[in-house]
Design brief:
homodimer; 244 residues; alpha+beta; 4-stranded antiparallel β-sheet; 11 strands; disordered N terminus; DNA-binding
DNA sequence: CGAATGTTTGAACCCTTTCAAAGACGGTGG
DNA sequence: CCACCGTCTTTGAAAGGGTTCAAACATTCG
């Protein structure tokens, strides 16, 4: 609360895709230096968000996509009964908000799980730029298609009836995504609570807790609070049914 | 088998988006007559598929998107253990294959559930056309975004822990989509088997069967083989948790 | 008509949920 | 620095719902 005045003064920071370490994962992937500079003129603002702060909420008018620069986000659906369902976790280099393109309003709320920074990508300007830069068009379509696939993979994860398979698949998914960003695939920090994991996987918090205990007892992983160490990546893969 | 020679002779049929009754649902939605004619030059072929025939299979190189002209399709994922998981059903006006854009190969197999016709949309040509027709760019992005949302809705459906909620949500989803195509929202034919419904919803065939029996006993629906009549749309909606 | 496929119904089992309570962690204030 | 408090996590026992296994029935299509 106290920190709001400080945050405001830091809200806008000059961004630069060209010098960003994530540019091979993010929207500028595959662009020439020249085209990246054009993109930089559109993606010219960064925004800081404190842990727990909303990037946007259900129903907000859609104006921009957001690339995660640093930090961690969750997106959630609000059911008619007040129930919250987490539909995705987003880490640096991933782009938020593409589901809103088709309806002009955000369908899901997005909240920072830790202090984070996003790059604003005003969509009207991006659309214009896509018409001008053919390779941006190509890469943007791949990005959207990748989001379609991420959704389908999550669905396949939820199709595993056994709770164990879901959690194993979840850990492996995190592992892969961390690895793609140059972090260890076997040792990482969970940014979300047990409850958020359970919600995401369609399981209760108690089941998540029991599973972590069991996996640890079996020596597959070590879990200390939010710190996860995977001891046997191969055996963990063997536990997952039909998801990758 | 015997019919293959016949099918081949009918395989290619001249298509026309301008005169297609689905053009407000499909790729040409919102295009001017002039732009639709340009699109017609690209979408110039139709393909007939017999029931049970594959449109494409996992691993096939990605070359075209396919708009369903008539009939019904399912898309399925093949798990490492040989398990099949149905990830989507597609009806006329819906576009197949957008998940493959990001990886250049089809990630899922697609099979006709009944004799069907699709319109070929060669993707390289579509990409070119998108660079030329701004409103096509706009509508194509909405189409992809819509596919992202369809996936998320399916995921929300699977999050309902109670089998009853999932089936209710499934019936409502079909109802809406039929209504959008000018068919009755309360009376329609299931194109898929109980097993396929169960697979899609993460339930067993027995559970689906029991649920239909129960819903019928409660007077909510009438089910005769594959013919469904919804008697109480409102009460059915009340059964679904957080999925619209 | 007959075989294959698809559907319905029953009973026992298993896993996750639910309900309950104790324990650990982290931040705040004295 | 430590005690306190709220939040998060762990663990236990009972209950519920869907699956599994089994068998009869219906439908479709050659």
């Amino acid at each position: 609360m106290r920190s709001i005045p400080i945050k405001v003064s830091l809200d806008s920071i000059k961004a630069s895709c060209g010098s960003c370490s994530l540019h091979e994962l993010c929207l500028p992937m595959g662009l020439s230096q020249e085209d990246t500079e054009l993109l930089d003129q559109t993606v010219n603002k960064r925004r800081k968000l404190a842990r727990g702060e909303h990037l946007y909420r259900v129903g907000d008018p859609f104006q921009a996509l957001y690339a995660v620069r640093s930090g961690f986000f969750k997106t959630l659906h609000l059911g008619g009964n007040g129930r919250e369902k987490i539909v995705g976790f987003y880490m640096p280099g991933e782009v938020l908000g593409m589901d809103a393109i088709s309806i002009d309003r955000h369908q899901y709320s997005t909240m920072a799980l830790e202090d984070s920074i996003v790059c604003d990508i005003p969509f009207a300007e991006l659309e214009h730029l896509i018409g001008v830069i053919p390779s941006l068009q190509y890469h943007f379509h791949r990005l959207m298609s990748g989001d379609i696939n991420a959704g389908k993979r999550h669905m396949l994860l939820l199709d595993n009836t056994r709770a164990e398979e879901r959690l194993a698949g979840f850990l492996l998914s995190l592992s892969q995504r961390f690895a793609a960003r140059g972090y260890s695939p076997t040792q990482f920090n969970l940014r979300m609570t047990r409850e958020e994991i359970g919600n995401y996987l369609g399981l209760t918090i108690e089941t998540i807790s029991r599973l972590f205990s069991r996996l640890q007892k079996e020596g597959l992983v070590n879990v200390q609070n939010r710190e996860v160490k995977i001891n046997d990546l191969v055996k963990l893969r063997g536990m997952v049914g039909h998801c990758d």
